[in-house]
Amino acid sequence: MLFGGKDSIGLDIGSSYIKTVKLKEAKGNYELELFNIYPLPPELIVDGSIIDSLRLVDSLKDMIKQANIKTKNAVISISGHSSVIIKRISLPEMSEEELSESIKFEAEQYVPFDIEDVILDFQIIGPKEEPGQMDVILVAVKKDIINEYISVVKEAGFNPIIVDIDSFALENMYGINYEIEPGKNVALLNIGASIINLSILKGGISVFTRDSSLGSNLHSEALQREFNISYENAEKLKRGEPVENVSPEDANSVIEAASEEILSEIVRSFDYYRSTTLHEDISEAILSGGCALLKNMPAMIAERAGIETKIVEPFRNIKIPKKFDASYIHEMAPILAVSVGLALRKQGDR
Ligand SMILES: Nc1ncnc2c1ncn2[C@@H]1O[C@H](COP(=O)(O)OP(=O)(O)OP(=O)(O)O)[C@@H](O)[C@H]1O
Ligand SMILES: [Mg+2]
């Protein structure tokens, strides 16, 4: 066989869809083996927390059957500002071992939760200009959130081998698909139903991340209110389909107005990044998540932020075999960006 099957799948459990991607790999070349997008009822996951684990397990089991998934090993991820803290910090130079010993102590001042309630991890980025100092990415995730996700996927029959973070998965997805230019700042912007994950890469290395509790639910809620329609019909309108006596054009002005909060949050984050980095220029934004499929979203972000905004291409360097409907995959690709990043992870990674 030319391509060795990877023995794990990427499983992105969002509040609105479960996204599954499995890849084959041979010598750094990737090929799509399986993908699935499974809609979830809107009330099972709220702001990154599992509210109804029983029904989520049932949904996962149903998804496994529907997508004919045989793989047990799963790479999952979490995000959200109330459960994940990612900070780039400066510490005195020390070895990885030394930092492992002292990370709890070092992290305490950066983590707004009880240090006993979180799982800590870190990555040493390298020395700083100031002698004797080094840059470290610190990650703290609430234990109860990780445990909720692990127990749900186990209950559904999976074996969770890695718990990743949405922003890191996006960085991995970017790494295999895009040419990295030294010194260039690129913003990865994932806007789903309830969470925005922003991560800014400089020369391909993450220098800033922020999660916000906003997303395309704002559009659905505004449409439901304005036209007095169901959740399902609001979802249809977002996809550009007419419902009852509401045209997609009528829906558009409501969608644009409801985007205001999202746009100002994005602009605020960019301004904050610029202000902390002596006004570094962000050369482009790469947009993923369901919001990328809203007709005017890339243009609205480009206009408000003054940054060229492109829709992500997570399958640029991944071969899509003939048995798949390639045009459908390319259309839905922004929704699959995180799961592609998860599917790239290998057992033993951290
Ligand atoms: N064709 C489309 N046009 C516009 N919006 C769409 C389209 N398809 C899906 N969406 C919207 O995208 C959102 C889902 O995107 P995504 O899968 O990225 O979110 P999620 O990962 O489930 O949510 P989160 O991570 O924020 O909890 C939903 O709000 C859905 O209505
Ligand atoms: Mg998501």
Structural descriptors:
Nucleotidyltransferase, domain 5, Dna Ligase, domain 1, globular, 10 helices, alpha/beta, single chain, 5-stranded mixed beta sheet, 36% helix, 7-stranded mixed beta sheet, binds magnesium ion, binds adenosine-5'-triphosphate, 350 residues
Verbal overview:
The structure is a single chain. This protein has 350 residues and is an alpha/beta fold. The chain has helices at residues 53-67, 96-107, 143-155, 166-177, 217-227, 231-238, 248-258, 260-276, 297-305, 326-343; strands at residues 4-5, 9-13, 17-26, 29-39, 45-46, 49-50, 73-78, 84-92, 118-127, 133-142, 159-165, 185-191, 196-202, 205-212, 282-288, 308-311, 318-319. Among the domains are: 84-139, Dna Ligase, domain 1 (2-Layer Sandwich), CATH 3.30.1490; 179-312, 2-Layer Sandwich (Nucleotidyltransferase, domain 5). The strands form four sheets. Strands 1, 2, 3, 4, 7, 11 and 17 form a seven-stranded mixed sheet that branches. A five-stranded mixed sheet has the order 14-13-12-15-16, with helices on both faces. Strand 2 and strand 3 form a beta hairpin. Helix 5 (217-227) packs across helix 7 (248-258). It is globular, with a radius of gyration of 20 Å. The protein binds adenosine-5'-triphosphate and magnesium ion.
